[in-house]
Amino acid sequence: MSAFPGQLAGWMAPALATAETLDSSETITALVAEYSTTLYRVAYSVMRNAAEAEDAVQEAFLRVLKHRDKIAEIRDVRVWLVRITWNVVLDRKRRSKTRPENEDVADFARILPASDRRADEVLISSQEHSRILKAIDQLPAKERQALLLSAVQELSTSEIADVLGTTESSIRSRIFRARRELSELLGKQGGSR
Amino acid sequence: MNHPDHLPVIDDPVDSTLRLIGSVSPRPGLEKRIAARLAHAPVSKSARFFGLPRLAFASTAGLVACAAIIAGSVNHSRRILPVAPGMQLPGSTSGIGTVSGARVAPKPVAAPSTGRARSVRKPGAESGTELNPPRGVAVPKRPVPQEDQATEPR
Q: What fold characterizes domain A1-102?
């Protein structure tokens, strides 16, 4: 981490002398340190792939860098960053619809907490999670988005509402509907198996 | 048939999956990798023309172009304004009473000596209907003038 501020200062080397540039460099350094994990979780909830989620976070920070002049005017930086990341991942997801899904059980098993569970237990668990995630993907877009963002622990309902550009009550009802529809979907799948 | 009683049973694995998704951690060193990516990104300033931001410059240029088109159009319309013969349009008035603004010329305008109607029907000429009457339609023949009857050979 010690080399991190130096690295960030490096990309602004030509204009390093100005206090403004130094400030924005430090600001972005602080933003990366504070929010990168949260943004990674937001990205992962949609992408379901570690490499793609990380790439999306990097792209989000590139957008932040592009609009660094506006950082001082932003009221809630966390919501702003989540919204940028959210737009990035939705764009990518839309583009990747033409490509085959790369989400697989093995990739999902890697993120499961290992603890002292046996390998077969982990596999069954990852298959179950994969089945639930596939059911989540079948939900209508608004319900699905609200449900996925609600999964990110750091985000409150009001923040989710700000990200999705709606009200808190709307978010609550979307999450409720999403859970109900998900239960029905999984119930049907369970009955048909 | 789904019953509300089933919901808590199914919610548990759903919650577990959502918790898992929401608490996933990136590989160590994410911050460094982001910094490295940002280091290689070109720091581009917003495009400026003549010291103005691109959007402001484009808007101004668009407004100037619109104004020029409107001014040119108005100027052109004034030049080709048609004037009815015998009428004199008032030069510059207050703009009130535009209907009565058209004045009758003080002297009657003489018709040009060479002027004639566009189409003059010569006596004896047959129209297209007479030459080629439509089928099934009885077209009465035009009576031959008296003088022609007198000169007509028998």
A: Rna Polymerase Sigma Factor; Chain: A (1.10.1740)
Q: Is B98 exposed, middle or buried (0-12, 13-18, 19+ CB in 10 A)?
A: exposed
Extents of the domains making up chain A: 1-102
Domain boundaries, chain B: 48-80
**Amino acid identity at A70:** K
Residue ranges of A 93-132 with Cβ closer than 8 A to chain B: 111-113, 128-129, 132
| Nearest to A36, CA basis, from B23, B34, B38 | B34
- Looking at the complex, does the CB of residue A146 fall below 8 Å from at least one CB of chain B? no
- Residue B88 — φ and ψ, nearest 5°? -120, 120
How many residues belong to chain B?
Answer: 154
Min distance A87 CA to chain B CA atoms (Å): 18
Task: Note whether A139 and A175 are within 8 A (CB).
Answer: no
CB A40 within 8 A of CB B26: yes
B6–A183 CB contact, under 8 Å: yes
- Residues forming a β-bridge with B53: B48
ipTM: 0.73
Q: What tens digit of pLDDT does each residue of B53-94 get? A: 778 888 989 999 999 999 998 888 777 666 565 555 555 555
| Run means of pLDDT, 10 residues per run, chain A, 193 residues | 49 45 73 92 90 92 86 87 94 74 56 57 73 91 93 90 94 94 85 53
Alpha helix segments (H runs only) across chain B: 7-22, 30-40, 54-79, 128-131, 146-151
**Is the pTM of the predicted complex or chain greater than 0.95?**
no
Determine the Cα–Cα distance for residues A163 and A32; give it in Å rounded to an integer. Answer: 19
